[in-house]
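Appendix C: a fully annotated inverse folding record. The material below is reproduced so that readers can follow the format used throughout the book. The structure is listed first as tokens, followed by the designed sequence.
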């Protein structure tokens, strides 16, 4: 049982690390390419693509 828990914790940790890296990359992209308020079409598309994964 202990090895199953450790394995699960490892998988969750790796997924969290990958997600954090992806979100950080998205944040940088959004800040480098700002859009006007209520005209965030590129921002919406990037977020939709991320959520579709």
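Designed amino acids, in order:
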């Amino acid at each position: 049982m202990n090895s199953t828990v450790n394995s699960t914790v490892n998988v969750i940790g790796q997924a969290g690390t990958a997600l954090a890296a992806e979100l950080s990359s998205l944040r940088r992209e959004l800040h480098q390419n700002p859009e006007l308020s209520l005209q965030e079409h590129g921002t919406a598309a990037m977020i939709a693509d991320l959520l579709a994964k």
